[in-house]
Amino acid sequence: MKNYYVFDTSSLILEAYTLFEDYKNIVIPSICLTELEYIKTSADKDPEIKQAVRNLLDLLDKNPDLYEIHLFRNSMLQKAKEEDLEINNDVKILMTAVDYDINCHPDETIFVSNDNSQKRIANIFFGNDSIKSVNVDDTNYTGYKEIKMNEDEMADFYSHQNENKYNLLINEYLIIEDQAGNIVDKLCWTGKEFRQVKYYDFSSRQFGKVKPINGDIYQALTVDSLAENKITMITGKAGSGKTFLSLGYLFYKLEHGEIDKIVVFCNTVATKNSAKLGYYPGSRDEKLLDSQIGNMLISKLGSRTELERMMEDETIMLLPLSDIRGYDTTGMKAGVYISEAQNLDINMMKLALQRIGEDSLCIIDGDTETQVDLPMYADFYNGMKRASKVYRGHKEYGQIKLQKIHRSRIAEIADLM
Question: pTM score, two decimals?
Answer without folding.
Answer: 0.73
